[in-house]
Design the sequence.
């Protein structure tokens, strides 16, 4: 098969880690007989330097014309003084909106080989955990009615959480379908004991659950979920939740894996085209030093193959190559901690993954 992939390398370590993922994609294409065409576009600080804007129209058009998008990271101290609507990070909201990406999939997996990197105790993590957070990305309080007004105690500000049945059903289907492809277990997280929007969320999810009798469905309040994630993360498989709850819980879930350089994400919409990116930022402190861990970006590329191109065997092969390299004891500097292990550079660990593939 042949696919066109837009590359948004961005700033800081973005170019290093995207180059690693491209090498892995090229090797995968060779191995399985596919052809991937890569076209780079500017985004973030480098786009401000070249064009004055963090998200040039050419980048939006290029992404819309592609089969999928692979993003590195944007931002850095050089652009910190830019006005709010011209900051590199603003480009992320712009491109998500332009591509209609309403679902954020964030796997949080603790690899058995990296157990020591988790801040949780051994008896809690056991031999590791593997969960998937499905977060609604374009609705809820981040996009609701907001403003200032005169209230009981004088000036006050307000933000509004609103969800329609259509929005809830849309994200709910993604979550149930994800559960069907994994262990058929889904937990929906809300605050239905307090919020009207959460009561509609829960009612709509229950209705959807009737269409997926094979999925073991449960509900949980968000305050309990925050606690359960650190108490017993292994009870979860797929989690579905709203924009704000997902924002908070997915950061908590990423932290308990202990290694930000390992975590991939996918943003999806109605089209098969998605945007795939590591969850970390541009790491300006190590940029240009060949020290970055490229695994989150490589695993994001694997998600692209699985979710946008339907190439599951190819995605599995990349994930297995990463597993093999970690099990063989190879580590980048961020994974070494205080141990005696000599870390590999970004290009060296990429070579190991290519060899494993
Ligand atoms: P960061 O994720 O860039 O870095 C936090 C720490 O983690 C740093 O010490 C960094 O060296 C380390 N780190 C991150 N990724 C790593 C990797 N792959 N390998 C090894 N170490 C890694 O977060 P920050 O320092 O808060 O932000 C830096 C810049 O990135 C800011 O301008 C911020 O706005 C931007 N940012 C961008 C995105 C994005 O593009 N999606 C996300 C978050 C932050």
Sequence:
């Amino acid at each position: 098969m042949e696919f066109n992939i837009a590359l948004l390398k961005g700033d800081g370590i973005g170019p290093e880690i995207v180059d690693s993922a491209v090498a892995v994609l090229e090797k995968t294409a060779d191995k399985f007989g596919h052809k991937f065409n890569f076209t780079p576009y500017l985004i973030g600080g480098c786009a401000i330097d070249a064009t004055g804007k963090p998200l040039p129209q050419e980048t939006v058009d290029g992404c819309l014309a592609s089969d999928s998008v692979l993003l590195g990271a944007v931002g850095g101290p050089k652009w910190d003084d830019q006005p709010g609507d011209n900051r590199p990070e603003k480009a992320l909201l712009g491109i998500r909106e332009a591509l209609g990406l309403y679902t954020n999939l964030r796997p949080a997996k603790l690899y058995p080989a990296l157990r020591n990197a988790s801040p949780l105790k051994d008896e809690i993590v056991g031999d590791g955990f593997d969960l998937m957070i499905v977060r609604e990305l374009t609705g809820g309080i981040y996009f609701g009615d907001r403003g200032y007004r005169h209230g009981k105690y004088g000036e006050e500000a307000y933000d509004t959480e609103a969800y329609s049945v259509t929005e809830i059903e849309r994200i709910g289907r993604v979550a149930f379908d994800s559960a069907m492809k994994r262990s058929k277990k889904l937990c929906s997280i809300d605050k239905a004991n307090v919020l009207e929007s959460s009561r509609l969320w829960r009612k709509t999810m229950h209705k959807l659950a009737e269409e997926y009798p094979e999925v073991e469905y449960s509900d949980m309040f968000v305050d309990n979920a925050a606690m359960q994630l650190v108490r017993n993360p292994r009870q979860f498989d797929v989690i579905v939740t709203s924009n704000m709850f997902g924002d908070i819980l997915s950061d908590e879930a990423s932290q308990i894996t202990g290694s930000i350089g390992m975590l991939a994400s996918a943003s999806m919409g109605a089209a098969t085209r998605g945007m795939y990116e590591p969850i970390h930022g541009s790491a300006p402190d190590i940029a240009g030093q060949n020290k970055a861990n490229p695994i989150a970006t490589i695993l994001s590329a694997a998600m692209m193959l699985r979710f946008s191109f339907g190439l599951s065997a190819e995605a599995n092969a990349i994930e297995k190559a990463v597993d093999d390299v970690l099990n063989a004891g190879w580590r980048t500097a961020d994974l070494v901690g205080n141990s005696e292990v000599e870390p590999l550079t970004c290009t060296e660990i990429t070579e190991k993954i290519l060899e494993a593939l």
Remarks:
- The longest strand covers residues 2-10.
- Residues 13, 73-76, 89, 92, 260-261, 277, 280-286, 292-293, 296, 334 surround nicotinamide-adenine-dinucleotide (CB under 6 Å).
- The chain is about 40% helix and 20% strand.
- The CA atoms of residues 61 and 98 lie 9 Å apart.
